[in-house]
Every structure is written in structure tokens, then in C-alpha cells.
Here is the input.
Amino acid sequence: MKPLLLSLLIAVTLWADAHIFVYHRFGDSRYPTTNTTIEELKKEFEYFKNSGYEVIPLKKLISTLKKKKNIPNNWIVLTIDDNFKSFYTNALPIFKEYNYPFSVFVYVEATQKRYPDYLTWEQLREIKKSGSIEFHSYGHKHMTYLSDAEIKEDFEKGLALFEKELRIKPKVFTYPYGEYSPRVQKIAKTYGFDAIINQNMGAVSDFSDVYDMDRTALVGKSNLKLYLRYKALNAKWKEPIMFPDNAILKSLYVKTNEKMKKGGVYITGHGWLEAKIENGDFKMELNKKLINKRSRIVISVGNKISTKLLIKDKYGIR
Here is the structure.
């Protein structure tokens, strides 16, 4: 989704709800779409510092949500997926300089097998002294293409190694590639995590689901100031819930408590559509062909958004 298109639909505000951001690589020009330059990282950190934002530990946001307390508008949480070495060599000194807390989500197989671009267990143990270390699966596979047994095997193998090497039990899980379905989510919740984080663009408010927390990527060419304007839309998705069998998105039905009469709907491959809202409900006949097996649906009311990522699930219930 192009942020410029969304900016035409939202109102400009100074504050929004709390935001979780995810980084991947740092100062690694070989992979521009998942890289954050060191210059950009410092620029973002300076913006947080000078604009009244507070960078907090992930566990503080989770605890506040669980206690059903209000989420301060200026909270920021910083996460790093995939335990690339470039975090340790290029970014960690900057996090320490600004004294910003962080959470690294570990792709266990890459560390266990000592893949060249990934952190070692020794480096992760050192990083643990400065931030939290959490779980990102063993094999970093597309989980919607795994059977239930294969998903459970991945969790059990990865968690066993994680706890053996780091001597801690991870509290939070993030899906590889940000991809999940109701089936995958149901299995993930059985492993006793305090929270599960997706990679659906958005924000976190006091009504957010602690097992489905929205997170926005700050990689490649990103627009931090635009992302910070997003507020969380309190929405109950009735349809779609899963990727349709024939890849035809027939209709949209989402319940909100909004009073506005118009909103927007974004569909991967089709861009933005204007939507009528009746009694807070988005109801549209669409009949749109989903071009990608990974399709993002976003609804917006002003600068509030709610996102659903539809992923084809090979073993999902139809």
C-alpha cells in the first residue's frame, strides 16, 4: 500500500494512539526493501526525542493493555525481526546512545545453524542485557502452508532451543512474514505467550487485542510522520475473515461505532475505494479478484484505520 494514497484520506493530527514499529536490517544496502539506513534511524530517533514521544518497552504496553488502562498517545515501541547481524554491528550502539528499549524476535534456526548474516547465541546473550529477546519461530516458514502438526513441531523445536540457549521463556511471538490465519493464530495462542504481534499497519489503543497487536514496518522508503498519524479503528471484522477459495472477494462487512457516513476501503491491487457507512457498518458488494495470495484490506474513517491481511491457508477450514 502506498502511504501517499492513504494520506489523501486522513486528517492531519499531531498525536495518534500508541505505535509498534518493526525494523529488520540496518545499514545493509544489499537489501533495500528491508533495510533502514543508519542516517534514517538517527533521524527517526531524533524525531521521537524532539517531538514528545516516549519509547517504552514492549512489556509495558502489553501490561497496560492487559490491565485495561488507557494507552498514552505518545507511546512508541521498537521491535526488530529476524536477528540479523546488522542490528548488533550497526544499530545497537545507536539504541544504547538514545537509551531506547527494544525487542528482538529470533528466527531460531538461523542462529542455531550459524547462518552467516545472523546473530550467534553469544551475541543474543549479550543483547539480552540491553533489551528483550522474543520468539519468531524456528524455521521462519510461511505458516499458513504448514499443517497443524508441522506448525506445532516448529514451535516446540524453536522454543526448546530458545530456552536452552538463552535461559528465558519468550513472552511474545511474531508471525514469520507477518502472515497468519485464524487456524495459525489459534495454534500460536496455545503456547502461553503474553501477547502476539502481527504486521498489519495500524496503531494500538486500549481496545486492541493483546493477541493481535498491530505493527507497522519502518523499512525501505517509509513515512514515519504519516504512520504516526494513524489511530486505531475499533472494528469487528465479519467478512472477509479468510482468503476466499476462488480468490474473489465478494463483499465486505465490518462493524464499527463510528458516526461518519463515509470512509475508505483499500484492497491490494485495486487501490482505494470510497465506502458508505450506515450505523457504523461498512457493507459493500465488491466482487474483486484478489491478485496476490497475500492481500491487504484496510478500512479507514478519517485517520483511524483497521487492517486485515488475507493469506491463503492450505489447511484452513472452508
Notes: The radius of gyration is 19 Å. The CA atoms of residues 144 and 239 lie 19 Å apart. The longest strand covers residues 248-256. The longest helix spans residues 148-166.
